[in-house]
Q: What sequence folds into this?
């Protein structure tokens, strides 16, 4: 009797166990439906900005419109490319409505790949964006920029020695003490590609050879470089203002220097926003884009601890956030840079092996 | 009374369904990702002809060689001391041995290198040794478990304790090498450790960087082509290792008698200290280092509150995935045990996703599952579960198939002679004998799901996972917050391990 009971129980368990692989697909689908079913009034945002910063603006948008924003953010490790790649792979069946990129080059690559949709008529507020920071055809629009600055450790560098030009990176005086992110990703890649455009092959190659000869440290990201300068492992190096401010806010002895003010100027890299072709919520996408391009969004981002630089004139901002009319900006052709960035990336990968 | 024909059909259907699921979750994504090679062969050829890629491949193999040069002898000796000697507390130490394996290497980096200043190649090798040496220990331990009393006694009589040690290690070497192969597989697909630890000083770029460069350049064919050397090498070594394991797997029948532990005499206590140090360095000290870096309990609490949803999501998807992996492993392991040809097919299906770079696997998942009929799966947690099952099924399969292989064939012979069906044989004879391996298999599979990042980066729902949250914060958040998050991830990983160990009161067996 007991044996039979044990046997029946065992058979029951086994049937259950072996039935489950077949039920797995159903379970998986159920899990998907149950937890993540999407409400109707929503917009799906893919953003390469770090999520807490993006949230500051998105929360305001959600409050104002009642539209829920589903945010998919990149990690620093993926250097904005993770989402770009996902957007290209999803092109046949787009899942995102809006791409908010923390720079412009990859947005231009997406435009070339046919992933983006032209906004016609242009979104409200687009006309006020300075011409260099928006696509003349209306595929993408720039806002809230970051500047490429030197982060300098003031415990390690005396006031009179503070570097002021990109060429200081290759000054033998700073051998083994300066840093530049390995220029195969992110804003550093954009920066070097812009230099090729502005200075030409010869001068830029001289600069890059100097970087190697001067034993510059090559960390994998701007945030990491800023941390290393803050901690005193590197004396100074190029980073973005947002990363500088993060380290400054942690109390490290650092200052930002806007380089080459008497020469080519400091590179300004805007955030860019674009609508995805065939996205599931095109109308809400337009509303979100218009909000991101509004004065209010730039104001929120300017007052954020990471201090993004408003591109439109007349935006309220903290004193420590310097606007483009307060310093000399580098004049670059974003579209040219976007088109050449892929080839440059492969060349630079070979150079900085 | 069993019904052989119907029951065998049931088994065939279940096995077929399991194979279909494995193909859909693990193999199809790889084929869909590698199809770029056929679409743009020139891109793939160009990537394969790139000297830089081969240089980095060689560099990575060099790092792997250095790691193995330390991990193999130290790991084998550790396993020998834990399994074959009378070191006090060896059972408890054996229980904690696998712990470092389940933490992502970057967590080891964050814990150790927030405290010490070592950088460059030595630091990279150190992290890999700490992270992956348990593979060697666990596989060696399994081989040592199978050494019989009479054999060990003979060796002792011929040449004393030293000959026992030498003979034991000689016998365990092939299994230790199998652990070494797994180490190579994981190192080949990693680039974060080298990136982080050579931020200052001469940069070391590895094979993973080349794959990543093609990925950054959005050159799909290049990425697929560049992944081939690693894929071929990993798959070949894994299959060699698996087939070798089958030939090594001595069946333990009812007559098996465990060898007497070697008496170490006065050396017991110093060796206990050494073993404790090794286990503590990998399992305990990283937690202490992270705790110190977290600064205060309130930071950990605050981060836990912020990450609660992600913790729930990660535990939920990991638990479902681990359950699925165990359920799939049972019929697959049974199928593999039935003939060498079938075992080869099952091994390829199960281990192929482990040999593929995770980014490539992620791209393949999008291509397979991003269709309107799979909306509920692709937009929700389903795709995360699929990614985890596809990629880590091998770690649930290994303990279960290992348990099946160790069974004495005599135990099933009686059932076969009485014309019992294979299904009845599996139900009544085999399953009761291997069920002790089911819980460890689940636990190992669950822990491996918690260290996944690179595949999940590519997936929309993957953004909700705790590892993704941690990696997103490595740069953007304050150091104490990052340390607190890493500590939470370690806690979520270790909690079920401790629970299973407390319930089973036996060390985890990976094979």
A:
């Amino acid at each position: 009797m007991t044996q039979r009971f044990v046997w029946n129980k065992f058979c029951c368990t086994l049937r259950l166990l072996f039935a489950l692989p077949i039920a797995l697909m159903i379970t998986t689908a159920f899990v998907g439906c149950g937890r993540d079913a999407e409400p109707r009034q929503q917009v799906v945002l893919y953003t390469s900005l770090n999520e807490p910063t993006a949230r500051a603006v998105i929360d305001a948008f959600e409050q104002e419109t009642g539209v829920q924003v589903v945010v998919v953010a990149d990690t620093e490790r993926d250097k904005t490319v993770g989402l770009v790649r996902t957007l290209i792979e999803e092109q046949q069946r787009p899942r995102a409505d809006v791409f908010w990129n923390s720079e412009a080059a990859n947005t231009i690559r997406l435009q070339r790949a046919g992933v983006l949709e032209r906004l016609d008529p242009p979104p409200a507020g687009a006309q006020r964006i300075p011409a260099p920071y928006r696509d003349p055809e209306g595929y993408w629009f720039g806002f809230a920029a970051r500047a490429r600055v030197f982060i300098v450790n003031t415990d390690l560098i005396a006031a009179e020695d503070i570097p002021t030009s990109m060429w200081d990176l290759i000054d033998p005086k700073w051998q083994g003490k300066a840093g530049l992110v390995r220029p195969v990703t992110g804003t550093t890649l954009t920066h070097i590609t812009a230099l090729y455009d502005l200075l030409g092959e010869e001068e830029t190659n001289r600069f890059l050879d100097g970087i190697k000869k001067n034993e510059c440290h090559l960390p994998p990201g701007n945030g990491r470089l800023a941390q290393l300068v803050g901690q005193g492992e590197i004396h100074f190096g190029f980073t973005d203002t947002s990363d500088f401010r993060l380290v400054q806010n942690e109390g490290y002895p650092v200052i930002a220097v806007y380089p080459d003010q008497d020469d080519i100027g400091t590179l300004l890299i805007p955030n860019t926003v674009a609508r995805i072709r065939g996205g599931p919520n095109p109308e809400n996408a337009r509303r979100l884009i218009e909000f991101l391009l509004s004065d209010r969004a730039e104001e929120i981002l300017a007052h954020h601890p990471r201090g993004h630089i408003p591109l439109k004139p007349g935006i309220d901002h903290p004193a420590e956030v310097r606007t483009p009319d307060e310093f000399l900006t580098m004049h670059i052709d974003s579209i040219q840079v976007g088109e050449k960035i892929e080839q440059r990336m492969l060349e630079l990968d070979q150079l900085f092996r | 009374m069993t019904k052989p024909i119907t029951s065998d059909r049931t088994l065939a259907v279940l096995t077929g369904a399991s194979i279909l699921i494995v193909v859909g979750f693990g193999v199809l994504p790889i084929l869909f990702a590698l199809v770029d090679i056929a679409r743009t062969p020139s891109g793939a050829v160009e990537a394969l002809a790139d000297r830089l890629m081969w240089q980095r491949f060689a560099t990575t193999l060099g790092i792997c060689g250095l790691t193995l040069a330390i991990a193999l002898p130290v790991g084998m000796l550790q396993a020998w001391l834990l399994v074959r000697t009378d070191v006090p507390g060896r059972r408890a130490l054996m229980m904690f041995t696998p712990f470092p394996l389940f933490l992502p290497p970057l967590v080891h980096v964050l814990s150790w290198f927030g405290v010490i200043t070592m950088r460059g190649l030595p630091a990279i090798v150190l992290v890999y040794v700490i992270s992956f040496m348990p593979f060697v220990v666990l596989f060696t331990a399994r081989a040592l478990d199978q050494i019989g009393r009479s054999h060990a006694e003979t060796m002792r009589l011929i040449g004393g304790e030293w000959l026992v040690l030498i003979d034991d290690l000689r016998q365990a070497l092939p299994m230790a090498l199998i652990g070494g192969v797994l180490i190579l597989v994981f190192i080949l697909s990693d680039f974060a450790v080298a990136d982080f630890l050579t931020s200052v000083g001469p940069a070391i770029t590895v094979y993973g960087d080349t794959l990543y460069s093609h990925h950054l350049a959005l050159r799909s064919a290049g990425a697929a082509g560049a992944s081939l050397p690693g894929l071929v090498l990993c798959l070949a070594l894994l299959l060699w290792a698996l087939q070798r394991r089958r030939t090594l797997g001595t069946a333990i029948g009812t007559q098996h008698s465990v060898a007497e532990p070697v008496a170490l005499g006065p050396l017991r206590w110093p060796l206990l200290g050494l073993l404790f140090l090794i286990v503590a360095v990998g399992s305990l000290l990283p937690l202490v280092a992270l705790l110190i870096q977290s600064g205060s309990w309130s930071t950990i609490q605050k981060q836990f509150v912020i990450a609660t949803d992600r913790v729930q999501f990660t535990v939920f998807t990991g638990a479902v995935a681990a359950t699925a992996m165990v359920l799939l492993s049972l019929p697959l392991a049974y199928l593999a045990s039935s003939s060498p040809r079938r075992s080869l097919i099952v091994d390829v299906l199960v281990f192929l996703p482990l040999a593929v770079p995770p980014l490539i696997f992620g791209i393949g998942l999008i291509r397979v599952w991003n269709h309107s009929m799979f909306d509920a799966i692709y937009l929700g947690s389903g795709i995360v579960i699929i990614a985890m099952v596809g990629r880590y099924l091998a770690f649930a399969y290994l303990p279960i198939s290992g348990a099946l292989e160790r069974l004495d064939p005599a135990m099933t012979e009686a059932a076969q002679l009485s014309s019992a069906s294979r299904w009845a044989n599996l139900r009544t004879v085999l399953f009761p004998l291997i069920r002790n391996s089911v819980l460890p298999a689940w636990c190992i599979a669950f822990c491996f799901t918690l260290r996944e990042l690179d595949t999940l980066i590519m997936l929309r729902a993957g953004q909700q996972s705790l590892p993704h949250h941690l990696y997103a914060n490595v740069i953007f958040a304050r150091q104490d917050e990052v340390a607190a998050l890493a500590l939470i991830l370690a806690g979520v990983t270790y909690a079920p391990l401790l629970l299973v160990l407390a319930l089973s009161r036996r060390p985890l067996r990976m094979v």
In short: The radius of gyration of chain B is 23 Å.
